[in-house]
Amino acid sequence: MVHFTAEEKAAITSTWKLVDVEDAGAEALGRLLVVYPWTQRFFDSFGNLSSSSAIMGNPKVKAHGKKVLTAFGDAVKNVDDLKNTFAHLSELHCDRLHVDPENFKLLGNVLVIVLAKYFGKEFTPQVLAAFSEGLNHLDNLKGTFAKLSELHCDKLHVDPENFRLLGNVLVVVLSHHFGKEFTPQVQAAYQKVVAGVANALAHKYH
């Protein structure tokens, strides 16, 4: 069961009022289909999903995205009873549509990125510098991060899952910086970079 503090509830409800459900919902679902193309198999009836521009301009994607974010809005209003709020949708997606529950996590990650465009601040030069280090060594990520992988595994005993979580957060931070320029195509590219860095950092654990 998820527990929210009073401060968290206040933050969620106050910021949600600023969200354009139709616009943000369309972008969130569109980004999901672009960044994680294997999710498109659940939307065969949506017509043309052949490219990122086709997906982002697809009226059925936009309409369903609005439905998704409207349901999320219901969750915002009922944060103390999320299980019952989504009971019907959970049954539908499990029993009838057979959707992999991992896809909900992916959608959540994408949604946070979209919402960050509404509320984000500039990310610091230090964060940019750290990420640029990864960009400068894309062809040898394993070698570049070998020492860090050894350090975090043997000496610091860091759970490798934390590398993936950091990658997700970093993509959100980048969306703050780039704003509208952080297109689905750009996001897809950066997701690959942070995934590569996370895998390289976790190399010593395997």
From TrEMBL:
Domain of life: Eukaryota
PROSITE patterns: GLOBIN
Domain annotation Globin: ranges: 3-206
GO terms, biological process: hydrogen peroxide catabolic process
GO CC field: blood microparticle; haptoglobin-hemoglobin complex; hemoglobin complex
UniProt key word Transport: yes
KW Ion transport (keyword) present: no
Gene Ontology molecular function terms on file: haptoglobin binding; heme binding; hemoglobin alpha binding; metal ion binding; organic acid binding; oxygen binding; oxygen carrier activity; peroxidase activity
Keyword vocabulary terms for this entry: Heme, Iron, Metal-binding, Oxygen transport, Transport
Gene3D superfamilies found in the cross-reference section: Globins
Similarity field: Belongs to the globin family.
Name by which UniProt lists this protein: Globin domain-containing protein
